[in-house]
Specification:
By secondary structure, the chain is mostly helical. It is built from twelve helices and no strands. 74% of the residues lie in helices and 0% in strands. Helix 2 packs across helix 9, helix 3 packs across helix 8 and helix 5 runs parallel beside helix 7.
Length: 296
């Protein structure tokens, strides 16, 4: 059980769908702020603000922080990977031309990695039905990615940005598994605050070494920062942590297959990021995969 009640019982059934919507908007924020601030400086500001806001919430809620330094290690490592490496890498990839829907699709490949590692690392049983769903999702992702990798047209997928996005998802997978193995039993609010400290420890050096000193203080930047802090980070990550605690980690990871169609639709409506019929078919196949993986 969670020591800090994040999800009321009546809202528990709505939590997966709400998580999908919140997570999808994160890729839209990445696309929207790209012209105004570099990815690493934005991430450092975001993590600093989230740590402050979430820390105040945790104190007001009476969250119990670990009393020893050793107990901080688990959530710090998870945060470095899940928040720091994953979000910095994804934001950088989108700022380098990776469409929001494609970035979300790469993120949806996490269940394949998770299912392969959850058994040997966590001792979870992954059913044949779930494996079949994950394979279908991976096949759908291939249909979306293969025709456009390296293409010169506006819908092309930059290979370097795609590689960085993939590496970021590997970090997210490892962070999710680490959180499940090493972070269980603690106060979820306290763990979240410590995780964002871990993310900050990743983003600040990247911002200092690779960030740009040029900032365009446009309204879109401040709106995106506020949304990323309050909705994507505070609400989204707490939902993710709560969902991980409520069930098997591979089942939670399968929710990421639902994010790409939502992000792609938002990207098309806001930025004109179009997909071919083959790519749309791949999105449908990926969605079918999550339907199969989520049953039983």
């Amino acid at each position: 059980m969670l020591r800090s009640p994040i999800l009321p019982r009546r809202a528990a059934d709505l939590a997966p769908g709400l998580f999908v919507l919140i997570w999808a908007t994160g890729f839209i924020v990445a696309r929207g702020i790209a012209p105004h601030m570099d990815a690493f400086t934005f991430s450092a500001l975001r993590f600093a603000a989230v740590t402050l806001v979430l820390g105040l919430v945790a104190l007001a809620a009476g969250a119990r922080f670990p009393g020893t330094g050793a107990r901080w290690g688990g959530p710090l490592v998870a945060g470095f990977l899940m928040q720091g490496v994953y979000l910095c890498g994804t934001l950088w990839a989108v700022s380098r031309g990776l469409p929001a829907g494609i970035a979300a699709l790469v993120g949806s490949l996490q269940p394949l990695m998770t299912a392969g590692l959850a058994g040997p690392l966590l001792g979870e049983r992954v059913s044949g039905r779930r494996i079949l769903g994950i394979v279908l999702g991976f096949a759908g992702a291939g249909l979306v990615l293969a025709p456009k990798v390296g293409a010169a047209d506006p819908a092309g997928i930059p290979p370097t940005a795609l590689a960085v996005s993939f590496a970021a998802v590997v970090a997210l997978t490892l962070g999710t598994l680490w959180q499940k193995r090493a972070g269980g039993g603690g106060d979820v609010l306290a763990d979240a605050v410590i995780q964002f400290l871990g993310g900050l420890a990743c983003a600040v050096p990247l911002a200092l070494l690779l960030g740009s000193r040029t900032i365009d203080p446009a309204p879109a930047l401040w709106f995106g920062l506020g949304w990323a802090v309050v909705v994507n980070s505070v609400a989204g990550i707490l939902l993710l942590l709560a969902l991980i605690r409520r069930g098997a980690v591979a089942g939670v990871a399968s929710l990421f297959f639902l994010v790409p169609p939502v992000a792609a639709a938002m990207g098309y409506a806001l930025f004109g990021e179009a997909l071919t019929l083959v790519q749309i078919g791949g999105m449908v196949l990926a969605a079918l995969g999550v339907a199969v993986a989520s049953r039983g």
